[in-house]
Amino acid sequence: MNTNARSDIDLQYEEAVQALNSLQTNAAELQRKRQDRASLIARNISGTESYLKKVGVSLGDLDKLSVIHVAGTKGKGSTCAFTESILREHGYRTGFYSSPHLVAVRERIRVNGQPISKEVFTRNFWDVYNKLLISKDSAEDMPAYFKFLTVLALKVFLREEVDVAILEVGIGGEYDCTNIVRKPVVCGISTLDFDHTSLLGSTIESITWHKAGIMKTNIPTFTLDQQLTTALMKLSDRAKEKECPLYVVPPLESYGWGARPLQLGMAGSVQYANASLALQLTQYWINYHTTGSNISYNKEKHSGPLSAEPFTLCDEEVIGLQSAVWPGRSQVMSCGDLTFFMDGAHTSKSMQGCVDWFTRTAPLHVPPSSSGQTYRVLIFNSTGDRDPETLLQFLPPCNIDLAIFTTNLVTTSMSASSDQTNYTISQDDMHLRCKRQRNIWISLVRKHSRSLNNEEVSNAPATSEETDKQLQNTEGEEHLDDKLPASDVPSIIFPCIKDALLWLSCGRNPNITGELLTPPAFPSPEALQEAAQVQVLVTGSLHLIGGILSIIDPGLSCTTRTRTPHKPPSLTDLVLRNYTKFSSPGAP
Q: Binding positions for ATP (predicted)?
């Protein structure tokens, strides 16, 4: 392909992304729609069906897709990535729909482990967009951003004739756009926790109710035994209500690994449960795909969750787990003398896992021959209706030397055709959030320091109201200025990610170049400039990590590896396919 042709494709792709970004709800309109949020959510499925019909996809067409549907608060993306990797390793042609994207919107729609190309995205985008445009019933009759991408993904998977489509739920489950699928082969529910409470409710029971909405009659759902008791009880109630067989997956260590080591492509002990869930989902799907047999609901047998049985892993499953990649989750990437530790933790549980991973992993990345100082930096931002204190409270023990709070904007002048343009929040609101997060951080670090000095400190986590009082009553904190450093808790705010990285790199990193768009509040600390190595923990938001990666790894070189699809069946495959005629692997 010549350079001009490549430039034409880039231009066409940017035009498509700009049109897609126009479907985002701007901040003012989003605030207005929140008043009618309940009715809008309830119409999500019917709206998705209507738009699918307009682009030539009926519910009957969707029934032809062989779907694995996964919901959950955290770990659902990792579970899907493990699932996709295993099935691709078996030689199946895979489709994988996920959210959010990190660098390019094409990452959300993958075929055979790779984001669809710019050409494929652009061609399919305009096909869907133009059909919806000419069939509008009113001026506002166009799907919102996520709904459009869901319609596009399903259309692409049908057109690409994938063997299996792995769908990650966006938010919740019951009313999520992906729940338009009526007949998935199997469903999975990963760890349940508090998130999106303004949409899903403020109790774990309410959140679980929504997540369990993907359950279907006579279609098994697999979940984790580490769920909160109340969550597992609600899952069981919903399973009975929907007449859905519910199974709890076994520990990853209980599977038959043979002489092969237990090794995963994703770091962190939290991935063990996700990997076990993926093994059960793939094993059931393969059994169904090869024999057509399924597990039907039995009122007496399925009166409560049953334990799924571990099984002996074949080479494809072991390799699939080892080679699975899911960027932005427990990921380490070196960029000159900066080492980035990136984890998109955005719930209390996931942040605890992130801190555990970072404190164990960071010392392993200090070069043995290094005699200079290692300087630790936190880059943080949280979005949506999340309380930043519930995340930041776990981070003071990480021995952070400097904290950077930035918006998720890559630059302050984002192009309308950028994959990372976000119209759902104003820049002023983003900056106010950063100021509040910095103030909370300073308060938490000071409190942590006092506790280390055996001063009297309450053991109970402070509520947001208590934190606000602390900010008013603690010496020097009531008038914190984001343009000045707090001498005892070094921290700084930046309006965009690129400025933060330019300031952090101190001009020493050839991969991070350019001019600061906004003058920094103060110069880089001398200790940072002289450090032999800088370890950077990036957490709180996957959107933040996406912005970081768009600068240090714009091509996402860390993405999933490719393999040749439709390979001949291995001996293990043949044995398993004969075995499945007489048993149901993955089920009791």
A: 329, 343
Q: Which two tokens stand for residue 39?
A: 């009715």
What are the DSSP calls for 182-241, one per residue? S--SEEEE-B-----HHHH-SSHHHHHHHHGGG-BTTB-EEE-TTS-HHHHHHHHHHHHH
Closest CA to 266 of 172, 344, 335: 344
Of 378, 341, 384, nearest to 194 by C-alpha is 384
Closest CA to 94 of 77, 110, 75, 108: 110
Identity at 361, one-letter amino acid code: T
Cis peptide leading into 100, omega within 30 of 0?
yes
Q: Per residue in 502-558, pLDDT tens?
A: 999 998 888 888 888 888 989 999 999 999 899 999 999 999 999 999 999 887 776
Decide if 96 contacts 80 (C-beta within 8 A): yes
pTM assigned to the model: 0.86
69 belongs to an annotated ligand binding site: no
Task: Count the neighbouring beta carbons within 10 Å of the beta carbon of residue 476.
Answer: 11
The residues, any chain, with a CB within 8 Å of residue 235's CB and separated by 6 or more, are 189, 208, 212, 221, 223, 227, 246, 305
User: What token pair was written down for 334?
Assistant: 């070196």
Q: Which amino acid is at 561?
A: R
The annotation status of 168 as a binding-site residue, yes or no, is yes
Whether the per-residue pLDDT at 486 is higher than 90: the answer is: no
Check pLDDT > 80 for residue 81: yes
Q: Which residues contact 154 (CB under 8 A, 6 or more apart)?
A: 52, 57, 62, 65, 97, 165, 180
Please give the structure tokens belonging to residue 399: 């021995």
Q: For residue 308, which amino acid is it?
A: A
- DSSP class of residue 313 equals P
Cα dihedral value 169, 327, 347, 338, nearest 10: -160
Taking residues 127-155, report their average pLDDT.
Answer: 95
Residue 209 in tokens: 């109710």
pLDDT band at 572 (very low <50, low <70, confident <90, very high): very low
**Residue 486 DSSP symbol:** B
Cβ neighbours of 431 (radius 10 Å): 17
Q: Which helix (H) or strand (E) holds 6?
A: helix 3-21
Tokens linked to 288: 């169904």
Report whether 170 contacts 78 (CB < 8 A). no
- For residue 571, give both structure tokens: 């001996």
Mean pLDDT taken over the chain? 86
| Residues 328 and 370 sit within 8 Å (Cβ to Cβ) | no
CB neighbours of 86 closer than 8 A, spacing ≥ 6?
278, 279, 282, 316, 317, 320, 321, 324
DSSP for residue 139: T
Q: With a cut of 60, say whether residue 563 has pLDDT above it.
A: no
Please say whether the beta carbons of 221 and 249 come within 8 A.
no
Mean pLDDT throughout 465-473? Answer: 47
- From the list 475, 407, 465, the residue with the least C-alpha distance to 443 is 475
Cα angle, residue 12 at apex, residues 9 and 14 outer, rounded to 5°: 110
- Residue 446, marked binder: no
DSSP state of 34: G
CA–CA dist 474, 63 (Å, integer): 60
Task: Specify the residue for token string 């912005």.
Answer: 547
